[in-house]
Design goal:
By secondary structure, the protein is an alpha/beta fold. It is 42% helix and 13% strand. It has 18 helices and 14 strands. The strands form two sheets. The chain has an eight-stranded mixed β-sheet, sandwiched between helices. A six-stranded parallel β-sheet has the order 11-10-9-12-13-14. Strand 4, helix 5 and strand 5 form a beta-alpha-beta unit.
Length: 448
């Protein structure tokens, strides 16, 4: 099928490359000319495992091209995914300005087109947005009628940054919110032949027909929108829950990871998202939970649990600094911050605990030295006035303490020799690592 994707960020580009690899003819659209030029040269503008290789392949095969021309992209394709950002306003509510503009641009293409076309909202939007905001713009700007001249779907994306391509190509499930059968049928064709991840295959690892394809769930537009928020809110709540349990563990000298293992063996609960640490960040959980809180309030529903999920997380993000200042006055001290990305495998620092930690350290007069294998450039834009290093060895050297904020694999290579290069050999860990450092040189945020 001929597919256009508007927005080539962490969602749009993996989706574009993934669909091109499945045999679709993909046009990626972005207003950022530099990104478009890079993509057309086969250069991947974002840090994502496996994406540079696949992008180079599909661009050289001619199955993926990029453009800044939305009108023509829509005109010359059969289905359009809207994958632009839906950021948060200061009050926590969703900001729809970008997606509304992208929709207006897309409607120009629809206006000039005679064939049936399907618009798919892939961006995360609060329930009813597709029906009450996106669909009316498409109708008004194109002069066409939804359900007759064009179809509308809402297809939330569940990929995780760092494994975006894998998650897009092997999703746990595909949710298709649809205006009508024809819209949903058209979108379902795009996902023909998408496998479920191996875990969903049978116990012998065989891809039996019952397990081979990713399950497809067809729903109303607004149910699809809420499935995305409910999923993210539940995952975020699991993290805040285990962090609260972890804070209790810390007082009692209990290893929260033993507790998480014991709890997670219960198949009704599952072990995932029970890794206690320095709180969640990223472009999705904080923004989506706050948007759901704001939306619930507008509906007259008190989102008490969701509020606590955020409140626990806000405190957890700077707990490492509290633990450090309980031990020393950091004024004028060299403090190493290891890891800046909100999680390993990405250069994304949006809402990363490292931002709050650096803020707090700076406020207390610390001399902050930082290192991240991928996210330095992004953090430099926010915190240009700290010292950046090319490796953890250099960052640790002569430091008065170190805070480990992102669990990049390479931090497991920190040895006692590295710790001994510090002024005071102390590593406070906001993420659980797998290394052999002595207990007297390390302390965990929620474990002994
Ligand atoms: P992003 O900010 O990384 O990318 C958005 C892209 O859209 C940018 O390249 C921007 O230049 C482009 N853009 C903006 N306006 C445009 C326009 N009018 N026409 C064409 N391009 C335009 O965003 P993202 O992280 O990919 O997220 C996109 C959506 O998907 C959001 O709603 C987000 O909540 C949701 N989502 C994100 C993730 C994730 O892990 N990042 C996962 C699932 C869902």
């Amino acid at each position: 099928m001929r597919v256009s994707i508007i927005g080539t960020g962490y969602v749009g580009l993996p989706a574009g490359a993934g669909l091109a690899s499945k045999g679709h003819d993909v046009t990626c659209v972005d207003i950022d000319e530099d990104k478009v030029n890079a993509i057309n040269q086969g250069d991947c503008p974002i840090f994502e495992d496996g994406l540079p290789e696949l992008l180079e392949q599909v661009v050289s095969q001619g199955t993926l091209t990029a453009t800044t021309d939305t009108t023509n992209a829509v005109k010359n394709t059969d289905i359009t995914f809207l994958a632009v950002g839906t950021p948060m306003r200061d009050d926590g509510s969703i900001n729809l300005d970008i997606i509304k503009q992208a929709t207006r641009d897309a409607a120009e293409g629809l206006k000039e087109k005679d064939d049936y076309h399907v618009f798919v909202v892939k961006s995360t939007v609060v329930p009813t947005t597709t029906e009450t905001e996106i669909l009316p713009i498409l109708e008004q700007e194109s002069g066409k009628t939804a359900g007759a001249d064009f179809g509308v779907c809402m297809n939330p994306e569940f990929l995780r940054e760092g494994t975006a391509l894998h998650d897009f190509l092997e999703p746990d499930r595909i949710v298709i919110g649809e205006l009508d059968d024809r819209s949903g049928d058209t979108l379902e064709q795009v996902y023909n032949g998408f496998d479920a991840p191996d875990e969903l295959h049978d116990s012998d690892g065989h891809r039996s027909s019952a397990f081979g394809d990713a399950p497809i769930l067809r729903t109303s537009l607004r149910a699809a929108e809420l499935i995305k928020y409910a999923s993210n809110a539940l995952l975020a709540t699991k993290i805040s829950f285990i962090n609260e349990i972890g804070n209790i563990c810390k007082e009692l000298d209990i290893d929260v990871y033993e507790v998480a293992d014991g709890v997670g063996l219960d198949h009704r609960i599952d072990r995932s998202f029970l890794d206690s640490g320095a709180g969640f960040g990223g472009s999705c959980f904080p923004k989506d939970v706050r948007a759901l809180i704001h939306f619930a309030e507008e509906q007259g529903v008190e989102p008490a649990l969701l509020r606590q999920t955020i409140d626990v997380n806000v405190k957890q993000k700077t707990k490492l600094v509290d633990q450090l200042t309980d031990r020393m006055d950091v004024q004028g001290k060299k403090i190493a911050v290891l890891g800046l990305a909100f999680k390993p495998g990405t250069d994304d620092i949006r809402k990363s605990p490292a931002i709050n930690i650096i803020d707090a350290l700076k406020t207390k007069g610390a001399d902050v030295h930082a290192y991240d294998p991928a996210a330095e450039d992004n953090m430099r834009e926010l915190h240009p006035d700290i010292t950046y290093h090319d490796g953890f060895e250099d960052t640790l050297s002569d430091a008065d303490a170190a805070l480990l904020v992102t669990d990049w694999d390479e931090f497991n290579d920190i040895t006692l020799e590295h710790i001994r290069t510090m002024n005071q050999p102390l590593l406070l860990e906001g993420r659980r690592m797998d290394h052999d450092l002595p207990d007297e040189n390390t302390d965990g945020i929620t474990w002994p």
